[in-house]
Every structure is written in C-alpha cells, then in structure tokens.
Amino acid sequence: MARQGPLHHTIRIAALAWPILVGQLAVIANGVIDTAMTSRFSATDLAALALGASIYISVFVGLNGVLQALAPVIGQLFGAKRFDAIGFEIKQGTWLALFLSCIGCLVLLFPQPLLSLAHASPELTAKATLYLRILALALPATLGFRIYGALNTAIARPKMLMVIQLIALLLKVPLNALFIFGGWGLPAFGGPGCAIATAAIAWLSLLVAWTILRTVPFYRTFGLFGTGFVAPHWNTQRALLKLGIPMGLSYLIEVTAFTFMALFIARLGDTAVAGHQITANFATVLYMLPLSIASAAGTLVAQAIGARNMEAARRIGHAGIGLAAALSTAIGGAVWLARDAIVHAYTPNEIIAGAALPLFLFIAFYQLFDAVQVTTAFVLRAYKVAIVPTLMYALALWGIGLGGGYVLGLNPFGWSPVATRGAAGFWLANSASIALVAAGLLWYLRVIQRTASQSR
Fold first, then answer.
1. How far is CA 405 from CA 36, 248, 282, 395, 424, in A?
2. Contacts of residue 11, Cβ cutoff 8 Å, sequence gap at least 6
3. Per-residue confidence at 263, pLDDT binned at 50, 70, 90?
4. What one-character-per-residue DSSP string does 70-93 give?
5. CB–CB of 266/273 below 8 Å?
6. Which of 47, 148, 249, 280 could form a cystine bridge with 209, CB 3.0-4.6 A?
7. Residues 267, 126, 196, 96: is their CA dihedral positive or negative?
C-alpha cells in the first residue's frame, strides 16, 4: 500500500469534519438562542439559565461521554469489516443508555445539592430547579439520539445526522418564543420555557433517527432490526464501561471546570454570572471547530487501527492535530479583534456587556491549547486509551484550573492581585490548566503510538 502524505490525510479529515461541524454548530446554536432570547426576558431568568444549563450540560456530557465508547469500538469494527458485530454493539449501547438515563434523571429531578453551591436567591434557585426538572424529560431521548450519532460518525456518514440537527435548530426559535414569552393561551415561562422546547425537539429527533435506521437499506448490513431480542451482555457492558467511564469522566471534568466556575462566579452577583455565561457560551461555539476535527480524526484513526494499518493511524492523528491547531490559532486572533461586536450581538445590556468583554482575552489566548488537547484526546480514544488522559484532566482542570481560579477569583486568602479577582481569575487559571493538559496528552500520544507500532 502506498504511503499517503499529510495533505491527503488532512483533506480526508476536512471532508469528514465539515458536516460534523455544521451539526455541532446547530446543536450549540440552541444554547446561543436560549441565552439571547432569555436575556431579553429578564436578567434573573438569564442567570437561572446559566446555573441550570451548567448543571444539565455537566450531567449530559458526562453520560454522553460514557456512550461515546461506542465510537472507537464501532470505528475499529468498521475498519476490520466486521459489520455484523456493529449491530450487537449498538443494541448493547441502547441498554447502557437506558441505565445512564435513570441516573441522570435522578440528578436533574433533585438538583438542590448542586444549586446550593451558588448561594443564589430563592427566585433564581426556583427557576433553575424548574428548568432542570423539565430537562429530565428530555435526557432519555437525547442519549438515545447520541447512539445514532455515534454510529453514523464512526462509519464516516455524518451528513444525515447533520440534517436532523439543522431541522431541530429551525424548530428551536419558534418553540422558544412560544414557551419563553407565552402565546396561544400558554403563559410566559421565561428561562424554563427553553427546557420545554428542548424536550419536545429531543423526542422528535429520536423518532426521526429510529425511522431512518429502520427503513434505509444501508443499515441492514449491521443487523439492527429483525435479529431478535438481545438482552444485556455483561462482558460487553463491562468492556464499554471500562472505556466509557474514563471517557465520561474526562468530559465531566472538562465541563465541570466551567460548571463550578459559573456556580462560584454566581456569588459575585447576577451581572458577573451573566457576563460569564455569554463568554462561556461563545467559547463553546468556537470549541466546535476543533471538536469536529477531533471527531473526524478519531474516526479515521480508529478505522485505520481496525484495518491494522498503524502507520496510517499515526499519520492521520498528526494531521488532525496540526489542522485543528492552525485553524484555532487564526480564529482566536479574529475573535479578539471582533470582541465588541460579538458581545453586543448577545445582549444590548451595557452592564452585562462590560462584564463579558474583558473575559474575551482568555478565549483568544487558549484557542490553540484547547484545539490541541481535544484532538489529541480523541486520537488516544481511537486507540481505546482513556484512563491516563482522564487523570491528566482531573489534576490540571480541577486542581490548577478550578482550584487556582477559586484562589485568584474569590481571593479567600486576601493576597491575590486585583487584576485577577472576579471572573478573570477563574478564566486565567482555566487557560493555564488547558495548556498543561495539551502538553501532557501530546507526550502520552507519542508513547501510545510507539507501543502500537512495535506490537504489530
């Protein structure tokens, strides 16, 4: 087999990444729409949305991360052309999604221990609680849809997934308007209205995905239907959990770094947490570019490993990391130059805008490190490696990022510099922790690739 150069692999990654990116941007745009529309209802509802969304995202991302163990498993099976085994893994993933939904719904129905960390007002806490309890209805459908997403991404067919996500986005604005501001005999729910719209769209998306899997001839190869009832297979469940739990924990650690930032910043008042919410929301939008490249690179690396082509796997991984780093560096500079226009597109409130603008320095700064760490992490997962990266995330993001942010931002010891007090201290510490994670993951990837090449 002829050795393919970096440009060839970069083009393959880009071709797979763009529909993933469009779909992910559509998903994130739901959060942008929620933030923008709720900010026009009331500052209190926006603050409640910030708290509620940070908790829901932590729950969903952690559980979704466990399910993402399906992606490298299916990718390697697809590369090895073991198509019949893919259907079995999907059915086991469905059982796992049901179990995870039970855990997640309990957390969302009883969120008071987490909300109490914010020391928020009773009105804000009540709104955030209602928001989370409504989203408990959406969680099973959302996790079920992620199985469809993991399958399509792992077999390099993400375009239909993208179409469903775009249709869901088109429905979000009118449904949000109806439930946030009221109409057609319905009262104005404010921030919790976003959750009602999300739940309706989640179940509709799952129904469409199930119909596609059931009716499109391509999927018959995998034996998803018509092969009889399959009970949970505990060895398969253990294998998925062995990979999925550290993956889920790494997602959870990364997101809770932002979750607890929001909870702690809420102690500084509604304006501070609203400014942080705008900044964090836009940072999440930017994160979708390297995340899509990471997903595409991880898919192609897993397929190459399944085909036992370790040299191609190594080259694809390096091409993905290089592409993500180059694009994110350019975007970071552009964001810094356009920061004023971006913030005012979110909110017309000058006080909230003033709280958000200084934080955009950190978005521009850490784009490179964020791109490197997420792409490297996905390449490692393609090798079914997740435990050591998870430990790196925990030490850096919780220890340095969150712990350092607490010391700098809230100044509990009375000696942090004035410039780092408030939300800026949390963002500074988080940026430093992401840089450390990027360096550590790059080193560990070299170790794994060397070991894989020697074991051929």
1. 27, 23, 20, 14, 8
2. none
3. confident
4. HHHHHHHHHHTT-HHHHHHHHHHH
5. yes
6. 148
7. positive
pLDDT in tens, 359-404: 887 777 778 899 999 999 999 999 999 899 999 999 999 888 888 8
Place of tokens 């993956």: 247
Choose among 56, 155, 63: nearest CA to 111: 56
Nearest to 389 by CA among 436, 435, 451, 440: 440
Please state, in angstroms and rounded to a whole number, the distance separating the CA atoms of residues 48 and 45: 5
Structural domain boundaries of the chain? 6-454
Return the biggest CA–CA distance within the chain: 68
In this structure, are residues 38 and 180 in contact, taking their beta carbons and an 8 Å threshold? yes
Note the pLDDT tens digit of each residue in 106-132. 999 988 787 777 666 777 788 888 889
Q: Which residues pair with 186 in a beta bridge?
A: 183
Residue with tokens 């450390």: 436
Q: Contact, 137 vs 124, CB < 8 A?
A: no
Structure tokens at 229: 């009832």
- For residue 445, what pLDDT is reported? 95
145, 69 contact by CB (below 8 A): no
Q: pLDDT exceeding 90 applies to what percent of the chain?
A: 40
Kindly give the residue spans of alpha helices, DSSP state H, lying in 216-269: 234-265
> Tell me, what's the pLDDT at 245?
92
Q: Describe the crossing of helices 6-39 and 192-215 by its angle, rounded to 10 degrees.
A: 140
User: Is residue 51 within 8 Å of 266, Cβ to Cβ?
Assistant: yes
Mean model confidence pLDDT for the chain: 86
183 φ, ψ to 5°? 150, 160
The count of other CB atoms within 10 Å of the CB of residue 342 is 17
